[in-house]
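A quick aside before the break. I want you to see a complete sequence-to-structure record at least once, exactly as it would be stored in a machine-readable document. Don't worry about memorizing anything.
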Amino acid sequence: MSLTAPHTLAKGGQESAMERADAIQMRVEGLTLDPATKTPIIVLRDAENKINLPIWIGLLEATAIATELEKIEVARPMTHDLLRTLVDELEARVEAVEVSDLKDSTFYATIYVKRGDREIAIDARPSDALAVAIRADCPIFVAKKVLEQSSILLQDEDGARDENLSNVAPEKWADILDRMTPDDFKYKM
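That is the input. The structure line, written in tokens, reads:
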């Protein structure tokens, strides 16, 4: 899969190119709960089913994502529905979102919006960006540097630390998360 389509972005009056060759397109594989903390985790997975990226998110954002994934109708618009409506009413569109960075144990994301000839990069929390992406039905990218920084090694039954979470099958997540301890993470969520 080629991800080399660059986008020119107007940010603060400056033009810059986002190289998609530096990112991998992923999709929301699902939501789960961390068995120890009961914190929601959104799991992103690449199209070839080789790479997983778990991101711990807040309960409200998980609810917003689950509501859209399950196509649950709510009486009043949720925040992310409001954002989608605003973008639509302003005759713009969400072109893509990207989990763009990981600094000091914090993930960063960018929402790319196009209105006419203007393309805008908007800083966002990954959970909000993903909730918007699901509603806008747009591509989700993860920067390769984020995947490299977030690879987590787990300890197997023999005590060896050789299993990379980015290669785990979706059906094994509950078992893996159940065996994990805070010491298994090299960063906090």
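Two observations worth writing down. The chain has one domain: 7-180. Residues 4 and 21 are 5 Å apart (CA to CA). We'll return to this after the break.
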